[in-house]
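Hey, resending since the last one bounced:
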Amino acid sequence: MKLLSRQEEMLLIAVWRLQHEAYGVKIRELLKELTGKEWAFGAIFTMLDRLVQKELLSSYLTDPTPERGGRSKRIYQLRKDGKQALIEIQQVQKTLWEGMEKLGFENK
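The structure tokens again:
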């Protein structure tokens, strides 16, 4: 199992949640909403490209639209291996956090 970075995990989750609306601007907006942090487009697209290369995501271009000045959107989709990577990282985190209450860590 190859572990994801926290940013890769959040990006894959954002793509999964957005489904057919998972393109740069929407991904950035959702990440900001969920984390309360600004995300640079350059950082997002670098990670998206890396996740496509790792075959965790796929992408395709939409037809050009008049509201975008005749430009297409690049839509990202979670692949089977991407979903499996999220399931595995969720299990790792669950295992890591088990028993923390006994050590005095409480989430209040």
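Strands lie at 57-61, 74-78.

Sorry for the duplicate.
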